[in-house]
Amino acid sequence: MSTHKEHICDVLVIGSGASGLSLALHLASTQKVMVLSKGPRNEGATYYAQGGIAAVFDENDSIESHVEDTQIAGDGLCNEDVVNFIAENAKECVQWLIDGGVPFDLDEDSKEDEPKFHLTREGGHSHRRILHAADATGMAVQTSLQDNVLHHPNINVLERHNALDLITRKKIGITGANRILGAYVWNRDREAVETIRAKFVVLATGGASKVYQYTSNPDVSSGDGIAMAWRAGCRVANLEFNQFHPTCLFHPEARNFLLTEALRGEGAYLRRPDGTRFMADFDARAELAPRDVVARAIDYEMKRLGADCMYIDISHKDPEFVIKHFPTIYEKLMTYGFDLTKQAVPIVPAAHYTCGGVMVDKNGQTDLEGLYAIGEVSYTGLHGANRMASNSLLECVVYAWAAAQHIGDNAAKAEIPPSLPHWDESQVSCSDEEVVLQHNWHELRLFMWDYVGIVRSTKRLERALRRIELLKQETHEYYSNFRVSNNLLEMRNLLQVAELMVRCAMARKESRGLHYTIDYPDKQEESGPTILVPDFPC
């Protein structure tokens, strides 16, 4: 008797962060939605987002200003239509979060019948337009969305389920126009591959910063959606632009604790070990320069001085103000022996955000019919060569809304596919060489940090590509002979995304935004997105 398990739904959402849960809630009144979460449902990048979400709520601000700031930060590579689309729909989509119970901070003079939100400012923004819940906005958004999902009868969340690969008509040999049919998923509790049939599949898997040795991201950020979409024949773009957050805590026991950009927005200084400030030497905006400028400046100063870290200092501000606005950071730092109100805190840059991804249109639809990608997994054109602070959660909720609208409009014409082939494990065995994966895992993340990090060169990129090709061969052999595991699936996906990152970086013969190469230090006069097309497009 077969032990294979099959699920059926209208919409399969792969990922349980802000974009995935928002889309599920938008659709659940008319569709049966299944949401996959690799681990616990809150173990994603959304939960750890500190700063906030950008939208024009201040009467002295304007959509035009939000658009202009985003384009400046994006260093000439933003898609203007997309930037306008997101900025114009920002307030309505953020209001949807508010109506759903997200407790954004209010101004002290706010009235109950006319709530006025406390808006902060972050790097690249010319106005205060960041709504936030103290310094734990992501936690507030994630918790609110989870509560709403938990009580909805049409949404089923499967925790500890990894998407393994997408199933398409072409993949299983059905003639005619190609489209998505569902996905194979790895049930980590049963240690078995299961099948999910669906009319539509939405990738909301987040980014790929786990490809780097040092990252602010949680362990689940392993580029799964990008790799799966590429294998299914979808184009990707701009994967050379990996944002390094300038200020992550430098401490041996704090592997990925981020110190929000809002600290600098509220007046924090960046200092050398001798206490002197340095950002004004690099940019007129000083500490409020965009993240690419700040990260390179910190990296430069560390290398110039041979220093292990730089420092962030807000101790010149009123202690009561600091504790009120940054309670989570304050309490966390105290556990490591740092008092944010009294001393400078050691920081280093760390991989933070994947600005490129799976190419989509304004509906979030990929090249493959029925397949959507929303949030950090996607390339919309919003971020260009560098993401402006607090535009990421905004992109999640706006594209969740847009994709849900498009899916809803097309749901009546789509059908749940017939029974799909089971995953074949008859020719594989259990591995007794897990150490091979661990070794390759550490090697990949280290050379990506060294060769494809904040500062690059052609030689470094070529070295990285050679190593990736060898590791891909080893991993493919391993994948072909042994049963799947969480580490194997993530290693396979990270290697694929690492290759795409390096290929994009090698194709860009200039330095722009987050991509800086010593061999091409200047910008080209004419530039556009870097687009990669699979050998076997969908």
UniProtKB/TrEMBL annotation:
GO biological process assignments: 'de novo' NAD+ biosynthetic process from L-aspartate
Domain of life the protein comes from: Bacteria
Annotated keywords: Coiled coil, Cytoplasm, FAD, Flavoprotein, Nucleotide-binding, Oxidoreductase, Pyridine nucleotide biosynthesis
One GO cellular component term: cytoplasm
Listed EC numbers: 1.4.3.16
EC top class, as a word: oxidoreductase
Keyword Cytoplasm appears in the UniProt entry: yes
Primary localisation category: cytoplasm
Family of the protein in this entry: Belongs to the FAD-dependent oxidoreductase 2 family. NadB subfamily.
UniProt name for this protein: L-aspartate oxidase
